[in-house]
Amino acid sequence: MRNGYLTLKGGHRVGIAGKTVLDNGKIKTMKYIKSFNFRISKEVIGAADKIMPYIISGKDVFHTLILSPPQMGKTTLLRDIARKLSDGFPGFRGVKVGIVDERSEIAGCWHGLPQKAVGMKTDILDGCPKAAGIMMMIRSMSPKVIITDEIGREEDALAIQEALNAGIRIITSAHASDIKDALSRPFLSRLLESRIFARIAVLGNSLGVGTLEKIYTGDYSTQLLSKPIR
Fold this sequence. Notes:
This protein is α/β, with parallel strands linked by helices and 230 residues long.
C-alpha cells in the first residue's frame, strides 16, 4: 500500500489516495483512504503482430524503445512482445525472456503467478525495482531478452548498459509523445543520443489506442513506416 496501489488477481490494479504515514521521511503506509482508481488490465493476444517484423532480424532481436503517452497501450504491447519472443512464431524460434515487472503491470503476477500470457520461456521478477531487477536477471537467469516498462532514472540507464555489455537485448518503454518530446527530457535525450536502441517505436491513437504511429532506426533519422498501422 505504501506504493499507492494494490495489484489484484487478474493483473488489475487499484490506485489509492489518502493520508500517507511517514517513517524517517519515507512512506510507510496510508490511512484515511478517500478514493480508489481501478485500472482494468486488458490482454490483447496479437497486439505485437505488426511490430515484430521491425524488431527482429533472422534470429536476432533489436534493442527497442517504445515511446508513448499514458494509456496508449505500451504495456499491452510489451506483454505481447514478451509472449511472442518467448513462445516463438513461424520463422523465429522462441528465446529466454526476463521481465522486470516493478509495478506488476506486464505479467500481472498474483502470489508469484503471472495472470497474463507472457510466454512459456519467460522468467519474471515481480515488484522489483528496474535497475536492481535487470542486474539480477544478468547474474542469475541468462535471458536473451530483458523486458521492462517505463524507464526514467539514471540507475535504469546504467543497468541497461550492463545488460548490453553482457550481450542481452533490451526492450523497454518510456513516457513521451514522440521523438521531439523525448529529446526535450534530459534522461531520455542522453539515452537516445547514446544510440543504444536500434529501433524506436512511437504509439498514439490516430487509428485508435495502440496505433503504431512511427518506427525509427536508432539514430532516429530514418522512419520505417510509410503510414500508421494498428
